[in-house]
Amino acid sequence: MDALDLARWQFAITTVYHFLFVPITIGMSAVVAGFHTAWLRTRNPEWLRLAKFFGKLFTINFALGLVTGIVQEFQFGMNWSAYSRFVGDIFGAPLAFEALLAFFMESTFLGLWIFGWGRIPEKLHVMCIWLVHIGTVLSAYFILAANSFMQNPVGFSYDATKNRAVLTDFVAVLMNKVQLVTFPHVVAAAYMTGGAMVMGVALWKLMKGRVAEDRNMYRKGARVGAWVTLVASVAILITGDVQGKIMTEVQPMKMAAAEALYETEQPASFSAFTIGSLDGSQEKFAVTVPRVLSFLATGDFNGKVEGINDLRRELPAAIAEKNKEYGIPAEYISPSSYVPNIPGSYWSFRFMMGLGFFAMGAAALVLWVTRKGATPTSKWVLWVAVLAPFSPVFANSFGWIFTEIGRQPWLVYGVMTTQTGLSTAASVTEVAISLTVYTLLYAVLAVIEVKLYLDYIKKGAEPFEEPKQLADDDQLAFAY
């Protein structure tokens, strides 16, 4: 492997690992805020116990997600300094807003929520956890705005004197049409993840918990998590459909790669399962659904979907024509191939959908087996409790992988190839060392996360204690 391959592996490992924490943080913060609000409105002790129990799991995830996210910032300067110099003016603006506004908001109000039990008025206290959730959503918006610029660059011009892109319209970057369809899809996926996490843990405690009096509380938690997962699943289907059409318009090669569609078809079939050659260029066996790909790509069951071979011939001229208005040097827009990794794009797209449908089905099942106060006892339901939280987590990861693989060979679509964004000073040895260090560090963090989660899940929700007004030197009501 050369430095480019290693740098890409490092970015993939660190980004996918960090993204395991992000949807859990967004989704669980909303569910915990809902539990806390339910207690404030009903004074039912079970809601407060659920809020504190899942609040601790949320806090663990938030802390470890924060540590893994810091590495992302270092990477841009370490391995991708050419990219940072070229589009730093544009890419850095939403990242700065994320750090200064959204992350500041999340951290501040999370601290107030953790240490505010009995110290601040109840309504202000519950508002703190809602503001934490709003901060996580805002954080997602700014991060996705930066990524959407890489998928569909807008709001910039090329400065030939400085040899870099400069920001001309920040609002255009924030209102990028790719951003406007990606953001609701990602947030809905985060709600599904948070809901599934609460559903799985509560279902496990319901079935395996030793305290009979707690079963009604965990049943409530499992059903709330299941409803959140199910409603979010429907939102994902709707937003994903819209996103697919915009993706086809902006990056037609990505849609062709998602289907491994080499020849243009009208109408085009969607393949649910395909066995092909190792490079994905030849189909051996496939299970297809007629006209569905046409609808996913164009909104018309008879729509035309361009194949990889036609796009390979058309894209060089189309991208060169578009770049005439920018005047970007040819070295940035001349990839050796316009085709991404086909097997990777095809299967990551299907794993994303398949795991999402599993979570959706699991939520419907949990609602059924816990109806009318029932406590399920079957071992296969117990396996649902174990697998359900992981399915949307990995569905998110495969969605992220598909988004990034399908954009290749572009770092910024049509403006800068991945190869030209690599740091010129990064040697193979240096990238290999940092890749090894980060991978080992992340493995240690994974062990810590799992250990803390298992310990707190085993302990379960603490007994109810009415929050009381505390003096400054009283013991904290919510601390580790």
How is this fold's topology laid out?
Elements: H1 3-42, H2 45-78, H3 81-115, H4 122-151, E1 156-159, E2 164-167, H5 170-174, H6 177-208, H7 215-250, H8 252-259, E3 270-276, E4 283-289, H9 292-298, H10 308-323, H11 342-369, H12 379-387, H13 390-407, E5 410-412, E6 416-417, H14 428-459
Antiparallel strand pairs: 1-2, 3-4, 5-6
Helix pairs in contact: 1-2, 1-4, 1-6, 1-13, 1-14, 2-3, 2-14, 3-4, 4-6, 6-7, 6-11, 6-12, 6-13, 7-8, 7-11, 8-11, 8-13, 11-13
What does this structure look like?
- This is Cytochrome bd-I ubiquinol oxidase subunit 1 apoprotein.
- It is a single chain.
- The protein is mainly α.
- It has helices at about 5-40, 45-80, 80-115, 120-150, 170-175, 175-210, 215-250, 250-260, 290-300, 310-325, 340-370, 380-385, 390-405, 430-460, and strands at about 155-160, 165, 270-275, 285-290, 410, 415.
- The strands form three sheets. A two-stranded antiparallel sheet has the order 1-2. A two-stranded antiparallel sheet has the order 3-4. A two-stranded antiparallel sheet has the order 5-6.
- It is globular.
